[in-house]
């Protein structure tokens, strides 16, 4: 059985998808871009500011579902420019100081709304 997860503290979906779905003790969080849920706009700044916002959005969804960062088992990071990898990694890593989840990182041609980063996340209990 699946359960749709929604948090007012994360951006609303910009397409036909849910913020997250919980099924069989696992939480699948849709790719999050650096939208500030208060304004509905991409945060100002560079990759560090955008990564911080993405991680806050992920945190809000985790919390809404009763999970936390320590429950994250896999992340996929999509970057508009691989030259931003080190700066993204610095911010991302601060959310996982020990027992980091498995992860893949890719450079893509373009991300929604001109974002520099998008991260999708899977958590498990």
What is the CATH domain class?
Alpha Beta
Query: For the record, what is the CATH homologous superfamily label?
Result: RutC-like
Task: List unreliable stretches of 5+ residues.
Answer: none
Strand content is 25-35%
Question: Average pLDDT, to the nearest integer?
Answer: 97
How many strands, which pairing sense, and closed or not: the largest β-sheet? 6 strands, mixed
The largest beta-sheet arranges its strands as 1-2-3-8-6-7
Query: Number of helical runs?
Result: 2
Describe the protein in words.
By secondary structure, the protein is an alpha+beta fold. The protein has a single domain, classed as RutC-like (60s Ribosomal Protein L30, Chain: A, 2-Layer Sandwich), CATH 3.30.1330. Helix 1 packs parallel to helix 2.
Summary tags:
125 residues; alpha+beta; 60s Ribosomal Protein L30, Chain: A; six-stranded mixed sheet; two-stranded antiparallel ribbon; 2 helices; globular
Describe, in short, the structure shown.
With 125 residues, the chain is an alpha+beta fold. 22% of the residues lie in helices and 33% in strands.
Task: Give the secondary structure arrangement, pairings included.
Elements: E1 2-5, E2 20-23, E3 26-32, E4 35-36, E5 41-42, H1 47-64, E6 72-79, H2 85-94, E7 102-107, E8 117-124
Parallel strand pairs: 6-7
Antiparallel strand pairs: 1-2, 2-3, 3-8, 4-5, 6-8
